[in-house]
Design brief:
With 338 residues, the chain is of the alpha/beta class. It contains twelve helices and 13 strands. Helix 1 crosses helix 10 and helix 10 runs antiparallel to helix 11.
């Protein structure tokens, strides 16, 4: 990436207070206390990018409430540019409550009724440094409701016209959509403005859910995030729509980069003992973006993403535990490097 810009990354979308169970291993109904962290996918990634050394800015909505104060204070301490963290009168900062039952049970509950970040508007985008950033990153949940949907689509158009790379984390959260079958419709509408797509197999399949028989599935069936399908065919369709790469996250195996020309690059992961998977994808996104913005090449950038994700799955939370550049390099150097 050669564009000269004020910011390396501009992140747009969710912000929240995340309440993580302190009673690791306890069933949700037996939890006695929680730790409070900052959350929300683009917000987490903005923090991770900043800790690695990028100049990151965040475009989000916060309520005029103590939770908004909590998030803003943390971001300012981290050095994320917060002038576009906008107060939305009459709306509340969102919250998430999470249980931790390793190795594979992590129940979570979202509180996003009347939430502030979904109130981002086209005027908010016009005031933000889209053209002055090397990359614009956002999550698919941005598209779940208006006015955030139109604002995000406009931001992607503006970025494309300005030579700002657009990075979409598919982020399939079916319970955030009135009808989760609309998720793929919205994702496909924005793909022509996207440079790089990041997602899991389930998310990639969900974004390409078009077959009439599949679309006749019930709301609850589509809400199951284990969306079956031919992931290779889905990736090919995504690439036909405009992106130059799809980064497919494959868990402990790492990730695969699928390029528009047909090349597939494997980027192995770093095996660790899982403590909490929540937030690992955001850590991956931060690491990948660092390498991408720095022009490292696909494999090396993705390996850094894998390393950041591996570190965070051993931690209690997400944004508060994002590694610094020195920390992640020490981690990879002990494991054979990037």
């Amino acid at each position: 990436m050669t564009k000269t810009a004020t910011y390396d990354t501009l992140h747009m979308g969710r912000s929240s207070i995340d309440l993580y169970s302190n009673d690791v291993g306890a069933p949700f109904e037996e939890i006695t206390s929680f730790a409070a962290y900052v959350g929300g996918s683009p917000t987490n990634i903005s923090v991770g990018a900043r800790r690695l050394g990028l100049k990151s800015a965040l475009l989000t909505g916060l309520g005029e409430d103590p939770v908004g104060d909590f998030i803003l204070a943390f971001l300012e301490k981290e050095g994320v540019e917060t002038r576009w963290c906008l107060r939305k009168p009459g709306h509340r900062t969102s919250a998430v409550v999470l249980g931790i039952e390793p190795p594979d049970k992590f129940p979570l509950v979202y509180y996003r009724d009347n939430c502030a970040d979904i109130e981002l508007t086209i005027d908010d985008v016009l005031a933000a440094p889209v053209a002055e950033s090397k990359s614009l990153q956002f999550a698919g949940t941005n598209l779940s409701k208006e006015p955030s949907r139109s604002a995000t689509m406009f931001a992607a158009e503006l970025a494309q016209r300005s030579g700002t790379d657009v990075v979409l984390d598919i982020d399939f959260r079916p319970y955030q959509w009135r009808d989760p079958r609309a998720f793929g419709v919205a994702i496909r509408a924005i793909l022509p403005q996207v440079t790089v797509v990041i997602g899991t197999e389930d998310e990639i399949n969900a974004s390409m859910l078009t077959d009439p028989d599949q679309m006749r599935l019930t709301h609850s069936q589509v809400s199951d995030t284990k969306v079956s399908g031919d992931v290779k065919a889905a990736i090919a369709r995504i690439l036909e729509m405009g992106p130059k790469a799809v980064v497919e996250k494959v868990g402990a195996e790492g990730a695969r980069i699928h390029l528009a020309g047909g090349e597939v690059i494997d980027a192995p992961g770093y095996p660790v003992e899982v403590y909490n998977i929540l937030g690992a994808g955001d850590a991956f996104g931060a690491g990948f973006l660092y390498g991408y913005v720095k022009g490292w090449g696909w494999r090396k950038a993705t390996r850094l993403g894998n390393a950041c994700g591996a570190i965070v799955v051993t931690k209690h939370g997400c944004a508060n535990f994002m590694p610094t550049y020195d920390e992640v390099m020490a981690f990879v150097n002990e494991r054979g490097g990037l």
